[in-house]
Amino acid sequence: MSASSAPDPFRRSLLLLLTGVGVLAFVATLLLGAYAPDLRSGRNGGGHALSNAAIGFSGLVRLAELTGRNPRIYRSEEELGTSDDLAVITPPSGSTDLGKVLAARGARATLIVLPKWQTEKRERPAGWVSASGLMPPMLLENVLEPAIRIRVSRRKTAHAPLQNRSPLVPSAALLREPPIMQSIAGAHVTPVIVDSRGATVLGQIGTRNLFLLSDPDLLDNVAMADRQQALGALTMLDDLNSSGARSILFDVTTNGLGHSRSPLRLAFDPPFLAVTLCLAAALLLAGWQALTRFGAPLVPRRAIAFGKAALVENSAALVRKARRETRLGGRYAEVARNRAAALYRLPPSTSAAETDAALDRLRPERPFSALAANVAGARTRGELVAAAQQMTRWIEETRE
After folding, report:
1. Containing domain of residue 136, as a range?
2. pTM here?
3. Does residue 39 belong to any structural domain of this protein?
């Protein structure tokens, strides 16, 4: 009885499928590792341009987009220095390091929005927060230290309109005081917008094109729920923006959502993307060659070949290995003499000297005996080869 064989689990199609899935998963892991910072939604309840929480600014970004102001989110400090348009910086606390951002901006228009609320993240809905109180002023006053020191104060308001103290923002009256007004003061702060009691709400820092907004409730998502406040916020950003501006920049690097250059990401960005694609194509062709035979299969050669040729080759290899080729010159001359004697039908009993004399008479100008002496007296491999070639050529030319 013949035993039935079990199906082979390692079928070629199954192995190819497993390999393909593994390669795709590996490439997907590389891509996610390279672009993970850009894929983060930012819905973590923070006070930044990607947050949909009450203290976030995604509503302002969305409104700027719908009104044709072309907002752009920046995740790198270096990129902030490539545009002259207004940049909105929203640090989460006063201890946030703004050195790299401000250095990248230089003399370009920049607006720093101070935080205000302490919040607790809620599980549902995603990205929402619950306010647990106000931040202590001492945690905000060091936002521009050590170069510039500010003071932060708060008071309850009656929603009075704000007032302008500078021609930079002529439309300050469109904005109204939030229920709790947060204001700033300092020796290097020049009032641009003030509240109903004259406290600075928007101040210019020194002579730079750098502005500090004391209260985020004028721009955050809560403010965007009020039509009047939303109009005032957009108008204020337009007033602060550079002439001929094409967009408004929103920075999220200070909120921990930035990205840095890495070799892994460079492999997938131009111009290095072309090199990556070429390497991928080369690997694909190498894998295809490994799976598919090109041409007829090679017949394996024996370690020791059959026939006289193999015997002669092996013997010659031994002589060459021992470096004794020059000692075979006399034997080669004897073989060549016997060959020439057979060609010219000399008697077999003729001695070597008589054979050389007979062959010399065939070509007196180039005697055979001299060539035989050169072969026998060779001292190097090159001399032996040259002398042997001359003797062989002599036999062939004389025969003709």
Report:
1. 29-259
2. 0.60
3. yes
